[in-house]
Known about the structure:
The complex is a heterodimer of chains A (224) and B (217). Chain A contains nine helices and no strands. With 224 residues, chain A is an all-alpha fold. Chain A starts with 7 loop residues before the first helix and ends in an 8-residue tail after the last helix. Chain A has a single domain, classed as Orthogonal Bundle (MetI-like fold), CATH 1.10.3720.10. The longest helix of chain A has 35 residues, at 14-48. Chain B is an all-alpha fold. Chain B has one domain: MetI-like (MetI-like fold, Orthogonal Bundle), CATH 1.10.3720.10. Helix content of chain B is 82%, strand content 0%. Chain B has helices at 7-42, 47-61, 65-78, 85-110, 114-122, 127-157, 169-180, 183-216. Chain B is elongated and about 75 Å long. The termini of chain B are far apart. The A-B interface holds A 1-3, 62-63, 65-72, 74-75, 78-79, 82-83, 156, 160-164, 166-167, 174, 187-188, 191-192, 194-195, 198-199, 202-203 and B 58-59, 61-68, 70-71, 74-75, 77-80, 152, 156-157, 159-160, 162-163, 170, 173-174, 177, 182-184, 187-188, 190-191, 194-195, 198-199, 202.
Amino acid sequence: MTYDFQFDAVLASWDYLLAGAWxxxxxxxxxxxxxxxxxxxxxLGKTSGPKxxxxxxxxxxxxxxxxxxxxxxxxxxFGLPTVGLRLSPDMAALIAMVVNVGAYATEIIRAGIESIxxxxxxxxxxxxxxxxxxxxxxxxxxxxxxxxxALTSQFxxxxxxxxxxxxxxxxxxxxxxNNIQSQTFRSFEIYIVVTGIYLVLALMFSALFAGIYRLxxxxxxxxx
Amino acid sequence: xxxxxxxxxxxxxxxxxxxTLLLSVIAFIGGGIxxxxxxxxxxxxxxxxxxxxxxxxxxxxxxxxxxxxxxxxFGATVLGxxxxxxxxxxxxxxxxxxxxxxxxxxxxIQSVPRGQWEAASSLGLRYPGLMRYVILPQAVKVAVPPTxxxxxxxxxxxxxxxxxxxxxxxRAGQIVNNATFQPFLVFGIVAAIYFxxxxxxxxxxxxxxxxxAAPSR
Lengths: 224, 217
């Protein structure tokens, strides 16, 4: 192998890379937060809404889950301006991520809602808990416990797939890498470093989420 | 020069579907073969093998598919190989698929009850026979629904080959859109074609899952 590795150009743009990584994290958290609101509404609509609403929500979920994220981005970034909605790349990226994660999270939340049996609520009331206590201890906490692991892994998936928004030049980590690459031509060096950054982010967040899970949901007895 | 979106443009999109399908088939078959070894290594009794497979899966599941494609594409240059976007996409998607299928199949292999392993080895079967005649046939049953479901991910993943310049369905959509500038129509059709490919597989996967889940309850 005669290739001469040069990481100087990459390291010279370290601040720029960190700024890109920071936007990746912010985009992911922002999209997850807004996506969760949509998901909760859609999950409620899907479990207890009228038939046309349920049908619409199902169509949304199936369309998003069975088409590539990249095509969804193109539809939003190139499509919306033709109806008069001009978007910056960052904004289009955020909207695409929200729409995408909203569909996946709806199914997760729905599973959480359906995991609470009616009998448990009745049992809570029968034990003399007040309705608010029943909601907090019997409904909310077990439901959160059910959806938490799936939601956190969905967050990691979202963060990793956000690299695709570089296709419309939002200023996140992968776009920054593309820019440095086109200035320095150290393609392999820059992408190996950026891949490493993504890996560190993914491992860091899954460790963080696992830690939070252990703290927040440690109350349960072993159910086997 | 802006053209209207007509029959020829539609045919161009349709003919690009064959590349999406071919890429999906290659990634699925290649990924399946490598993935089987990843799954076997991941469930092996040999610790270094297990660690190696765990690391392999961790790296591919912890980094973006797009970065993996870039690294294969530009990594080939480092090794002094001149690789076309087509080969780079096929290799990158194969590696990625192998890691995900390996992890799915690990779960299926481990879902076969311990007693089956013990019974098989006490009947005198060595590892190859034990796997071939006892464990894998039972694991395959569990593996079919999630594997069909993962095929949808593979097909969607091939769209990223567009970014490294390989003309499959998504890239064809970009080309047509640049000529006609009717993004809603063009990418709407592209999305509809992907949907027509993926949705039946999603439904099949759900149906298979319901069928296999029923008797065991």
